[in-house]
Design a protein that fits this description.
By secondary structure, the chain is an alpha+beta fold. The protein contains ten helices and six strands; from the N terminus they run H-H-H-E-H-H-H-E-E-E-E-H-H-H-H-E. The chain has one domain. Helix 4 packs antiparallel against helix 5. The radius of gyration is 30 Å and the shape is globular. The N and C termini lie far apart (114 Å). It comes from Lachnoanaerobaculum orale. Keywords: Signal. This is Lipoprotein.
């Protein structure tokens, strides 16, 4: 009897040890599984960051960053109110070089632009960290013209420091950045948006003879400017040096995404020029 009790006791201890060992293994497995899960990089990203980082999956995000929305407003304010200093701030500049010439140009443009309405930003992450590709749709009201014109433009935006945004001038963008913007512009979202705005612009232009005349002048001037630019480039290649103006690149940093006959830079939309 005594031996039976000892054997029974040993058996119970063996069962308890087996259960304890099993529980220990389960805890270890659970801990390892938990640790493996928390080390996955995606788990540290918010849903907004995921969407901004993968436009191919999630599409362009509509007005996701208040700081970029405000930056675009400042750009448009500068155009309408001929504020050269604010325009320089938009591009992250604090110098005075070319500021007077830019002021003259904006004075001319302010005679054309009355307001930018119904503005929406479509944003995705840029080529490098803390950068963004921003497409901007607006309905533009011109002085003395009743019908508003749809306009789609783009900008490459940097964030430095955090929550401080500025647009990058075209001539300061790297080739990789330019290629990335071109890639984003071919996304389904932007192609669809561009097609719709072209359709709306065509309807607006045909419905208002004054607006149609204005755009005809711009298209003609754009073709003339392209021809002149090609001639200047050829001449510059034959000389030892060529001059460039920073204020030109500043205003031209946002351009229309249309790449065919109506590829007009915002910088070129000046009355009679």
């Amino acid at each position: 009897m005594k031996n039976r009790k000892i054997i029974t006791g040993l058996g119970m201890m063996a069962v308890m040890m087996a259960v304890a060992t099993g529980c220990s293994k389960n805890v270890a497995t659970t801990t390892q599984s938990s640790e493996a899960t928390t080390t996955v990089p995606e788990s540290t990203m918010s849903e907004e960051e995921k969407k901004l980082s993968d436009y191919k999956t999630y599409g362009m995000q509509k007005d996701p960053i208040p700081g970029i929305v405000e930056l675009v407003k400042n750009y448009q304010y500068s155009k309408v109110n001929a504020d050269a200093r604010r325009m320089y701030n938009v591009f992250g500049r604090s110098d005075e070089d070319g500021l007077a010439d830019l002021q003259t140009k904006l004075n001319d443009e302010a005679k054309v632009y009355e307001s930018f309405d119904d503005t929406v930003t479509y944003v995705t992450k840029g080529y490098e960290p803390n950068s963004y590709v921003v497409f901007i749709s607006s309905n533009v009201k011109f002085h003395d013209i009743d019908t508003k014109a749809p306009m789609l433009t783009w900008a490459y935006v940097m964030e430095n420091p955090k929550d401080a945004f500025y647009m990058v001038e075209n001539d300061k963008m790297t080739e990789d950045e330019k290629k990335y913007v071109d890639e984003v512009s071919k996304s389904e979202d932007i192609i669809a948006l561009d097609a719709q705005m072209r359709k709306d612009l065509a309807a607006a232009v045909t419905s208002d003879i004054q607006l149609g005349t204005l755009y005809s002048i711009w298209v003609k001037n754009a073709s003339t400017n392209e021809s002149a630019s090609a001639a200047e480039t050829s001449a510059a290649a034959e000389t030892s040096s060529a001059e460039s103006s920073e204020e030109e690149s500043t205003v031209e940093s946002i351009t229309e995404t249309t790449k065919n006959e109506a590829n007009i830079s915002i910088a070129e939309t000046k009355s009679g020029n």
